[in-house]
Write a sequence for this structure.
């Protein structure tokens, strides 16, 4: 049986004649409930709606006889087909599910999901390709006027989208970024609010060096979500957006080599050997998350598994639609969304309250600089993301960049910020920056690959350049307040730090907040002069929070997200002590357990 496109019953290669539309509808009603008894009253209701014939049971019987004849290949001429059976209180179509294309499709998708879970991407991709090749048009195309077929058709369409997304996931894992973009582009136009799909497409675009397209896509999606559903982009999509802004998704070629590493490397062993390399948890790899991992990991859990490939998750927490297989591979007919695998944020109540209040004040006109410092892996980046999530949810724009690239060109950090603002507010940006275009030169140029190395440092006197950038930012903030997030400020080039210093002097009356993360500043001493960074972080104008370890309670909460069973207080205490409350160390301990 084929139900993709118009319904067709085949015996071998011979197409069977199914007769008039209502005869076909009866078959459709039975296929939808394959191997289940459909009661007679239900069949009558679904077949004729509120306008049944005068003797409905007899009429139904006639239709059943017709159907049996149509399907009676191989049976005794005139005898009943073994396929359509009477079984009180109704009828059942008894058929091996594999004989129906839609069932074969779903089985392949479920198997592919299992392959992905064990990182067998090539096999998964082949299966998904085979599943999608079965798709030959809208399921039950000519029968969608009947409610059960319309519902099933919609459910199958959602399952198709899931298959497309999983296929994209395998392609990303295999470094086939072109294929991802080609396949997802038309889907994203049809389903502009399907966040998981958009997330994969953004990743593919970014990896092809089309960062600007990826950012535009995000903004378009956000606008669609706001218009159609009145909601903001989901947290996971925002995290991927932030990862792109911070240029922390690796590009395809690197990713492709990483897959091979992952495939042959046991995860626990790999983590253990890296632990030996970086006992304190320092040393960033680029993004690592794959398949079932969360987008939160895409931004911040990368160090644990540098062997894995950058991709976006299929269980992202992005809402999936009804009827798609869940992570256990079981079709989710109740339409319950996928279980979320994103890792929850725990603790930091005090810091969140302080920084939340700071952000509110900044966005309402009391701009300023706030800094989160602490040892590597203590949770600085994660905390800032939690803070900015609140701001985004309140409808504010947040521009984030990573400051890595100390040896890059002067003002590299600000070049990236300007570039992002030129994408998110093209009109306003053009207006306010026009008069500085000669002065700022290369800093304002749009570099499609997003490579900082391509930015030409301006030739003019530093103060003029810094003044111009501050003027642009202040003018844009006065039009619409925003937050800037500068991650790993300790890695910023010297000129960028100077510019930040100048900006902070201008902020007090401007609705612009700058939130930075940084390694701890060096304590002032007579022998070592303070650096520009030390000055900034130590300034009385800066709100500096030094992060310590998580509380015991927060550690318990984090442990609970990793371990299904109850963990007793003693074990939690031991983990707290061993990790020093560092969420990174804790995660690593848990993953090795
Ligand atoms: N409050 C938290 N709740 C749950 N997980 C957290 C929390 N804080 C941090 N983590 C996790 O701990 C890990 C390290 O966090 P993060 O990257 O924010 O540290 P960091 O201080 O920014 O490190 P670095 O100095 O290397 O930049 C990440 O995997 C992150 O998801
Ligand atoms: Mg960090």
């Amino acid at each position: 049986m084929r139900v993709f496109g118009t319904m067709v019953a085949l015996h071998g290669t011979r197409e069977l004649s199914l007769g008039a539309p209502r005869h076909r509808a009866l078959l459709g009603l039975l296929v939808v409930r394959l191997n289940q008894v459909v009661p007679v009253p239900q069949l009558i209701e679904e077949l004729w709606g509120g306008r049944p014939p005068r003797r409905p049971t007899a009429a139904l019987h006639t239709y059943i006889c017709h159907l049996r004849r149509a399907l009676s290949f191989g049976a005794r001429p005139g005898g009943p087909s073994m396929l359509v059976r009477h079984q009180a209180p109704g009828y059942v179509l008894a058929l091996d599910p594999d004989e129906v294309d839609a069932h074969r499709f779903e089985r392949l998708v479920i198997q592919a999901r299992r392959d992905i879970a064990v990182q067998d991407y090539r096999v998964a991709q082949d299966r998904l390709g085979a599943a999608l090749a079965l798709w030959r048009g809208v399921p039950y195309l000519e029968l969608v006027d009947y409610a059960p077929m319309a519902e099933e058709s919609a459910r199958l369409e959602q399952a198709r989208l899931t298959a497309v997304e999983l296929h994209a996931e395998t392609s990303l894992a295999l470094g086939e970024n072109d294929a991802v973009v080609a396949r997802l582009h038309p889907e994203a136009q049809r389903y502009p609010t399907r966040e998981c799909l958009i997330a994969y497409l953004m990743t593919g675009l970014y990896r092809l060096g089309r960062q600007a397209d990826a950012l535009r896509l995000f903004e378009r999606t956000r606008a669609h979500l706001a218009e159609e559903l009145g909601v903001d982009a989901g947290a996971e999509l925002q995290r991927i957006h932030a990862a792109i802004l911070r240029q922390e998704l690796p590009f395809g070629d690197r990713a492709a080599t990483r897959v091979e590493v992952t495939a042959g490397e046991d995860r626990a062993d790999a983590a253990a050997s890296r632990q030996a390399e970086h006992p304190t948890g320092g040393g960033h790899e680029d993004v690592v998350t794959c398949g079932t991992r969360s987008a939160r990991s895409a931004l911040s859990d990368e160090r644990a598994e540098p062997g894995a490939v950058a991709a976006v998750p299929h269980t992202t927490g992005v809402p999936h639609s009804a009827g798609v297989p869940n992570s256990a591979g079981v079709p989710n007919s109740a339409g319950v969304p996928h279980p979320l695998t994103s890792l929850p944020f725990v603790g930091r109540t005090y810091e969140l309250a302080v920084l939340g209040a700071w952000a509110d004040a900044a966005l309402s006109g009391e701009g300023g600089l706030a800094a989160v410092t602490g040892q590597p892996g203590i949770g600085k980046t994660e905390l800032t993301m939690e803070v900015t999530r609140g701001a985004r949810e309140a409808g504010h724009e947040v521009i984030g960049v990573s400051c890595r690239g100390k040896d890059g060109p002067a003002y590299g950090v600000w070049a990236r910020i300007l570039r992002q603002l030129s994408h998110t507010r093209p009109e306003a940006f053009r207006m306010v920056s026009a008069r500085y275009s000669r002065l700022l030169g290369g800093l304002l140029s749009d570099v499609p690959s997003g490579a900082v190395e391509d930015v030409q440092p301006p030739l003019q006197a530093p103060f003029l350049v810094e003044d111009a950038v501050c003027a642009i930012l202040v003018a844009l903030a006065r039009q619409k307040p925003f937050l800037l997030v500068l991650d790993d400020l300790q890695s910023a080039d010297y000129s960028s730090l100077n510019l930040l210093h100048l900006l902070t002097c201008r902020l007090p009356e401007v609705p612009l907040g700058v939130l930075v993360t940084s390694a701890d500043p060096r304590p002032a001493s007579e022998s070592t002069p303070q650096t520009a960074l030390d000055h900034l972080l130590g300034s009385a104008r800066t709100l500096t929070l030094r992060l310590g370890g998580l509380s015991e309670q927060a550690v318990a909460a984090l442990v609970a997200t990793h371990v299904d069973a109850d963990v007793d207080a003693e074990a939690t205490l031991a983990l707290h002590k061993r990790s020093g409350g560092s969420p990174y160390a804790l995660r690593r301990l848990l993953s090795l357990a």
User: Anything to note?
Assistant: Residues 252-342, 446-456 have pLDDT under 50 and may be disordered. The first strand starts at residue 10 and ends at 11.
